[in-house]
Automatic annotation (TrEMBL):
Domain Intradiol ring-cleavage dioxygenases residue range list: 139-167
Species of origin: Amycolatopsis echigonensis
GO molecular function: catechol 1,2-dioxygenase activity; ferric iron binding
Pfam families: Dioxygenase_C (PF00775), Dioxygenase_N (PF04444)
Region annotation (Disordered) ranges: 1-37
Presence of the UniProt keyword Calcium in the record: no
Protein name per UniProt: Catechol 1,2-dioxygenase
Record family assignment: Belongs to the intradiol ring-cleavage dioxygenase family.
Record-linked PANTHER family: DIOXYGENASE, PUTATIVE (AFU_ORTHOLOGUE AFUA_2G02910)-RELATED, INTRADIOL RING-CLEAVAGE DIOXYGENASES DOMAIN-CONTAINING PROTEIN-RELATED
Cofactor list: Fe(3+)
Keywords: Dioxygenase, Iron, Metal-binding, Oxidoreductase
Length: 285
């Protein structure tokens, strides 16, 4: 079979299982620091009260309760909890955390971050297939602290979907590490990353998350985006995403994770390469 579309569409269950495994591997995400019985009771108690409020306001019936229960079970069985939570809930948490964050705006991490990617020098091309499709894109910029001092040796950890909207590590046809890398800034804190423009991302529609979207009449799309995690010693890591001006679904992101400050406008350089600069500002720990 030739390298065309259908045969390599990853399944919801496949990418869900990969996302679940990736999350479980990262122990740093499960710190219980700051927890106490009072805090658990307060937070969980208020979540239950919010559900109570919804049940009353919508006069929820037993069949609806049983349908919700069946759906929640299928989300677990399909390994789609990382997807469901990061699409529908993470943006609330990110919004709250960002209130105490200075410098570059953050956005949600989503389910497809994989640590430990290839370290690349400041001026680099992301790992890609020899025939990688998509418009060439060069993202360059500088990492600085909030006082404007450059941060040499900072890490720009970048990952994004390919020209068909698929992520390496979550779609079996893609080589590991494709369109992912950890770029180390130069002596002036600068970087220049060559890659290809990602396509909008469609939430897998053959599993329970897709079924919910369909039942609610909501579309399954995220606008095209590039994920970044920018780290420097002694500074607060920024997890964010960049979006493209005039991109489809910018105003209706199913994951509600766009911010006007994160929209870039690459310009064609006359040789078929789109170029854009974006600088990152990190606050001290
Ligand atoms: C993605 O690529 C993503 O960024 C989010 C937040 C959810 C699902 C897929
Ligand atoms: Fe994404």
């Amino acid at each position: 079979m030739t390298a065309t579309h259908e045969h390599h569409s990853p399944t919801a269950a496949g990418s869900g299982a990969s996302a679940t495994a990736a999350f479980k591997e990262s122990s740093t995400r499960r710190s219980t620091a700051g927890s106490s019985p009072e805090r658990v009771a307060g937070i969980v108690g208020d979540i239950l009260k919010a559900i109570d409020d919804v049940v009353h306001r919508h006069d929820v019936t037993y069949p609806e309760y049983q349908a919700a229960k069946a759906w929640l079970m299928s989300v677990g069985e399909g390994g789609e909890w990382p997807l469901v939570l990061d699409v529908f809930v993470e943006h609330f948490v990110e919004d709250q955390v960002s209130r105490s964050q200075h410098g570059t705006k953050g956005s949600i991490e989503g389910p497809y971050y994989l640590p430990g990617q290839a370290k690349l020098s400041a001026e680099c091309t992301l790992p890609m297939r020899p025939d990688e499709k998509g418009t060439p894109l060069v993202l360059s910029g500088q990492v600085r602290d909030v006082d404007g001092n450059p941060l040499p040796g900072a890490e720009v950890d970048i990952w994004h979907a390919d020209d068909e909207g698929y992520y390496a590590g979550f779609a079996p046809h893609l080589p590991d590490g494709n369109l992912r890398g950890v770029v180390v800034t130069d002596d002036h804190g600068r970087f220049a990353i060559r890659t290809v423009q990602p396509a909008p991302y469609q939430i897998p529609h053959d599993g329970p998350t897709g079924a919910l979207l369909e039942s609610a009449g909501w579309h399954p799309w995220r606008p095209a985006h590039i994920h970044l995690m920018v780290r420097a010693d002694g500074h607060r890591t920024i997890t964010t995403q960049l979006y493209f001006e005039a991109g489809e679904y910018l105003d209706s992101d199913v994951a509600a994770a766009t911010k006007p400050e994160l929209v870039i406008a690459p310009a064609d350089d006359g040789a078929g390469v789109r170029r854009v600069t974006y600088d990152f500002e990190l606050e001290k720990d």
